[in-house]
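Can't paste images in this forum, so I'm doing it all in text. The chain is below; anyone willing to post the predicted structure tokens underneath?
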Amino acid sequence: MTAAPPGIELVRYGLDRASEIRPVLLEVYAEVYADEISADPFFSMARYEQRLDGHTSAPEWEAVVGWHNGVCVGYIYGFQERRDADEFALCELMVRQPWRKTGTAKALHDALITGRSEKRVSLYVEQAHHKVRALYESWGYRFVGAPQPFPDAPAYDELVLRLDAEQ
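Text version of the structure:
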């Protein structure tokens, strides 16, 4: 597991604390996706709030939030996939600009998935985001398909990381 950069505390939140952390998740989303929010209705705050509501109603929803001196530096969250209890769906990983390229994203990721009971982690990455996909692939994720989760969603690739011994 990757350690958090110095001065960053990683805090785990479950469903019982989802409403407590929700304002922070929305604030960081609004900052990280500022350009997309104004350019594409799929990324609007209202749509993100709908997705967040759906995600936080899923079994085993969990988030890890990074804090530095009381300021959220980023977060990651996911849930146990409804269609397959052996799969953990990683939904969002966001790091604010000042903490990018510091190892924060990997530390958040590892903190969330370490010790999970599922056999694999899946995620979607926009096909246009080649650097993001390359980052996930450097962490061991592999391409498995190109789903269309919503009719108005951008083109995504689905990547999967095996957590079981069959890697």
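The mean pLDDT is 93. The chain is about 30% helix and 30% strand.
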